[in-house]
């Protein structure tokens, strides 16, 4: 099922005593989610992720704009008629019901022609349970389950009606690191198997990058970028997106463009064809540094952290915005631990320039003359 968000806007009255006016939780959001895709809605806390999801589910009404499921305008359709499956951070299972009764619950409210027999309901509950691999736990109560198992029950309950759209709001936040990893793979598998168009909300960039077909990066109610995870990582449109994606985070320097070259401090580190002279932010991904004693950029070495496959070189530079530079280097490289200075070359495609005022990306022309 294709899902279309058309100029979707949600304003809330601001109830704060000092602040007046309104909060624009979602601001003019337009996007067409292709049928069967898993979309990761990503951004810091308070950026409007849950509001967007609640608009899709029908729990709240937009101030402006429309929502379509396929060709149906569902903007004014109540939540119970939209055919959405919802999963929240807290599993919200009914404690006095068994797993089976919890999963069957959404089916029991079906009325009229849609009313199901007990056998059919049990069959559907069993199929949903099988999908999330909890069919052995059907007779337990939620209190007898681990967090991960409870969340699976919640997912099974969301799936039992075979929803047109599956909406997940930070579904893994209450799980420990290991379970989080396992459950996210599980969600991806279930989504692929069922082909249900899914919106997955998270503030965790790694989680969103790893399971999404496409990510939507939001801040303050505004969508900043939409794209395949790798594309967004490799081509951030602004400094916010560049900083939000990637661990360790991107290293941001104050730089100067002079004569089609990027200077960090007094050192020319990169050709910047077609970029007019100006002050810029130069952001370099941790994997964009290459150790070289004769390299273009000298930094003050702080420490070297061994991470197994790679090593992380921690250094500083006076032009750095922030405290330390983290560069990821293959562990085969030799770093002189005693040296006060470390020199790097930089990989051109791992360096991004941003306008100092607008923080929008400045593109560097390639040798061929194309932007
Ligand atoms: P997220 O899920 O990304 O953390 P939310 O969508 O919950 O963010 O909230 C976005 C903004 O809207 C926040 O500033 C929040 O305070 C505000 N907001 C959310 N719900 C309400 C509400 N019912 N009334 C007033 N403001 C709200
Ligand atoms: Mg939220």
Q: What count of helical segments does DSSP give?
A: 8
Helix content: 10-25%
CA-to-CA gap between the ends?
36 Å
Shape: elongated
Order of helices and strands: EEEHEEEHHHEHEHEEHHEEEEEEEEEEEE
Count structural domains: 2
CATH class of the largest domain: Alpha Beta
Q: Note the beta-strand portion.
A: 25-35%
Distinct bound molecules: adenosine-5'-diphosphate, magnesium ion
Structural class: alpha+beta
Structure description:
With 371 residues, this protein is of the alpha+beta class. It contains eight helices and 22 strands. The strands form four sheets. Strands 11, 12, 13, 14, 18, 21 and 22 form a seven-stranded antiparallel beta sheet that branches. Strands 6-7-8-3-9-10 form a six-stranded mixed beta sheet, with helices on both faces. A hairpin with a 3-residue loop joins strand 16 and strand 17. The chain starts with a strand and ends in a 9-residue tail after the last strand. The relative contact order is 0.11. The structure holds adenosine-5'-diphosphate (ADP) and magnesium ion (MG).
Please tag this protein with its features:
6-stranded mixed beta sheet, binds magnesium ion, 2 domains, 35% strand, 22 strands, 22% helix, binds adenosine-5'-diphosphate, alpha+beta, Rossmann fold, 371 residues
């Amino acid at each position: 099922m294709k899902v279309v968000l058309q100029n979707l806007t949600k304003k809330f009255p601001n109830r704060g005593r000092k602040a007046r006016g309104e909060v624009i939780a979602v601001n003019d959001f337009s996007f067409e989610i292709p049928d069967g895709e898993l979309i990761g809605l990503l951004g810091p806390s308070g950026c409007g992720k849950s509001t967007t999801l609640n608009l899709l589910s029908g729990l709240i009404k937009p101030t402006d704009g429309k929502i379509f499921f396929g060709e149906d305008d569902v903007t004014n359709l109540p939540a119970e008629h939209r055919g959405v499956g919802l999963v929240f951070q807290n599993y919200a299972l009914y404690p006095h019901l068994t797993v089976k009764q919890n999963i069957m619950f959404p089916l029991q409210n079906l009325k009229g022609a849609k009313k199901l027999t007990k056998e059919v309901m049990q069959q559907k509950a069993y199929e949903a349970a099988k999908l999330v691999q909890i069919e052995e736990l059907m007779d337990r109560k939620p209190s007898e389950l681990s967090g991960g198992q409870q969340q699976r029950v919640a997912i099974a309950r969301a799936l039992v009606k075979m929803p047109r759209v599956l909406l997940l709001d930070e579904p893994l936040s209450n799980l420990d690191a290991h379970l989080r990893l396992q459950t996210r793979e599980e969600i991806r598998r279930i989504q692929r198997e069922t082909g249900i168009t899914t919106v997955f909300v998270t503030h965790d960039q790694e989680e969103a990058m790893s399971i999404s077909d496409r990510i939507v990066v939001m801040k303050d109610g505004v969508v900043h970028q939409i794209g395949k995870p790798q594309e967004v990582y490799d081509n951030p449109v602004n400094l916010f997106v560049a900083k939000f994606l990637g661990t360790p985070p991107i290293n941001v320097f104050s730089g100067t463009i002079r004569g089609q070259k990027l200077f960090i401090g007094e050192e020319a580190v990169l050709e910047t064809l077609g970029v007019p002279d100006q002050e810029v932010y130069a952001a370099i991904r941790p994997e964009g540094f290459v150790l070289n004693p004769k390299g273009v950029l000298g930094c003050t070495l702080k420490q070297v952290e061994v991470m197994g496959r790679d090593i992380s070189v921690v250094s500083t530079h006076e032009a750095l915005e922030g405290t330390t530079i983290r560069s990821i280097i293959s562990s085969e490289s030799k770093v002189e631990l005693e040296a006060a200075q470390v020199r790097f070359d930089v990989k051109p495609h791992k360096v991004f320039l941003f306008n100092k005022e607008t923080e929008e990306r400045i593109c560097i022309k390639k040798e061929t003359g194309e932007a």
